[in-house]
Amino acid sequence: MSEFRFNILKDKWVLLDGERSNRKGYFNIESVEDAESESECPFCHGMENYTPVELYRKNNSEGEWERRVIPNKYPVLKVEEYLSKNQVGPYSRVSGTGVHEIVIESGEHFLKLSEHSKLILYDTFDIFRTRVAELKKDVRLKYFSLFKNYGYSGGATLLHPHSQVLGVPFVPNMPLAMLRKQESYYLEHDRCIVCDIIDYEMAADERIIYSNKDYVAVTPYASEYPFEVHVYPLRHQADFFDKDTNLLNLADIVNNVFVMFEKKLNNPPLNMGLYIAPVEGYVPFFGNFKSSNSSFHWHLEIIPRLNRTGGIEVINDMMINPVLPEKAAKVLEG
Question: In what order do the strands lie in the sheet with 3-7?
Answer without folding.
Answer: 3-7, 12-16, 320-321
